[in-house]
């Protein structure tokens, strides 16, 4: 069953009924101010850090799930009836409803008894605020006397403390109201550096800032006292639960439309702000009054929305394709790229499935996210790389996560994830290929954000490899540490404190035995990538060093990581094989099959083909490739969290979509475009739209996980939006299936497309030059012949024009 449709021309997904299987969300904001926004106006807002600068409340595990958000109520003053155009929170039957999720905005509309209302939510570029652009139309034959009520519930900034420390927080809420603007200044007494505000373009009939006054005793959001009675209480919050609610009365003639702009904003004083007087507890409202005045004017709101649209035109215009497959076009041109922006901004911190409290930005995650983002805003990618490198230890290890507000590592999740350092190399290499900006390698970056420890970024990359060399196990493979990419494959190797020694089961070793074949493959790739960086940066001595290390690890993986038909996954802390035909359960894992082939291991001798054939035989399902088989049917303490999940879910034989693209890329490396695109389609959300009742998650963004064949709900998705699946599927589709990828010397054009495709066209902006690419098939193979501006060239890399031209015409023929 479908709950909406793609409006491809408008770049919107249109939801036509509000009772979607899960809250189907969008993100507003793409710079410093962000918000989660569901199709029924649920969600919350924050500035930079979803935990430490939460503006409005979000409650998880609510019933219904999507409760609390950016609500507007429309009340008919003649009979006292009211409705919410967003359906929630009133949930009354609407005569008409739609939500149009677009690029950085959503328009939610509802109609009831001849009154049509619509709200356009978005965050203007360059501003730390959000707009609720509300219009209401009287479609009746007679005049309508209406009351409009808005409501936003403030969070007391630290979302963790807000949700737990009630004995304190019920006494700290503070607001000021001046010129009909509500200022949320809780915590200002203590920090004196930030506050929020809520303003409206219309003259107010009333307001409320105390939640209990707005809702009334023993009432909920679906039936607030102020709305039911048609009168606000002009309440001032002193402790308890601060809110911002405006009440506007309107009298509309038949056919008349009125527009009201609500604005929720954030202000942070500059670090050198001088307070006058120094101990004043009164916020400096004059700093935001010009912004408030600006966005109370609908003309400025329209201009801001036009600028937002233009920004997305530019971002998405960096790569556009026209292929024979609507799902490929839809995802590559719009939704997958859009999701890559969200993962870059949020990492894995704030979504329907992530509370914004438990995680900050991930070291491994954010480096991988660069693969799908760096071509859009390379200057932001550059800063992210430097921030990530600053959370690395002098040993080459790294904090697994860090808070974006402080840019310091999370002490409760320190090092020990032994794949982490390699991803920095891969992220930096991709940035360098995309931009040619080798100056970043000379940027001085500290270790552990500690002043006085600064070394060039290139040294951080060297330390990443050194960390791996310092953590080699008995077979010569990298030690897995607390975990590798698969956080749940712990192999009984845990650490009480960051940097402290590992604890293991009685009879096991001290953490110096459990090895990862996956990290072995990852290390082969990272050494090759670092050799490429060194060559392009003019460091020939390092090129030979890292290629030799890659070759040595390649041989080690072949010798100790091959199980006969596929690559082993690991050795546990007792030296026993994981992911082997010798195991009763968990005989074969997906990760090393895909990644070892990406690293080039076994590509020439047929070993890689055997591994991928085993994936197809043992792991592939109609809904995607499962992580391992057979599923674990009981808990294995020596394996850790992976076996704590029921069969078919998450890491226990679920379809972990993040690593499906590794197999997709591997198939293109071996020239199998049909299989690569088939695997791509199985997890593609657009292609799964018809089964939304089963899939449940949004049909316009990839999910982290789809229930595997061992699960009773095979095909059901979870953890949408914030997943490495976004960057990797974009990278797999554009760089390997379509074959358009950045290299140090130019833009490679080497498609590996399905045999049924007669070709495709694409536009790719690379280092300021627009490459117009046309691919035509003259045979069923993948041999590529390139013509550039009418002249045939050797190879598959198109160099940048030497004459300074800004456009290049590329024709590729496949035979």
TrEMBL record:
GO terms for biological process: carbohydrate metabolic process. Gene3D superfamilies: 1.50.10.10, Glycoside hydrolase, family 65, N-terminal domain, Maltose phosphorylase, domain 3, mpn423 like domain. Residues 312-739 form the Glycosyl hydrolase 94 catalytic domain. Residues 11-297 form the Glycosyl hydrolase 94 supersandwich domain. Its EC number is 2.4.1.20. InterPro entries: 6-hairpin_glycosidase_sf, 6hp_glycosidase-like_sf, Gal_mutarotase_sf_dom, GH65_N, GH94_catalytic, GH94_Enzymes, GH94N_CBP, Glyco_hydrolase_94_b-supersand. It comes from the Bacteria. Keywords: Glycosyltransferase, Transferase. One of its GO terms (molecular function) is carbohydrate binding. It holds the Pfam family GH94_b-supersand. This is Cellobiose phosphorylase. It comes from Rhizomicrobium palustre.
